[in-house]
Design goal:
The chain is mainly α. It has four helices and no strands. The chain has one domain.
């Protein structure tokens, strides 16, 4: 059963990627235009509106909407990638700041120890 599912998934992906192109929209427009003369010859407004709505718009807009979704998706993906890259940069800066802070704390503790030692030496010297 999984081979059938794999086949169906691959076939659906191929069809979707093929339909989501402007070339497919042009082909669909050409196909739709084949029936336009008949719709116009009928002179019936309902037939003409039906041709526009059901034949032309549905066929052509399907591909155009899918192309637009791909463009929007690529834009969102680019923004996500940029945000991720910026976040990683900020994270690295924060790590560097933390490391620098830790070094400063070590140095301050050393200075504090030296000050305490000097104060004790002064205190011992004044008591003598």
């Amino acid at each position: 059963m999984s081979k059938i599912n794999d086949f169906n998934t691959k076939l659906a992906a191929k069809i979707t990627s093929g339909v989501a192109t402007m070339w497919c929209a042009y082909i669909f427009a050409g196909i739709a235009l084949v029936s336009l003369p008949s719709a116009l010859k009928s002179g019936d407004l309902i037939v003409i509106v039906a041709w526009v709505a059901q034949t032309f718009l549905q066929l052509v807009l399907l591909s155009i909407i899918m192309v637009g979704q791909n463009v929007a998706s690529a834009s969102v993906e680019q923004k996500i990638t940029e945000t991720h890259t910026a976040s990683l940069g900020e994270f690295e800066l924060a790590k560097e700041a933390r490391d620098l802070n830790n070094q400063e704390i070590v140095e301050l503790r050393r200075i504090a120890t030296d000050i305490h030692r000097v104060l004790k030496d002064i205190e011992s010297a004044t008591k003598k």
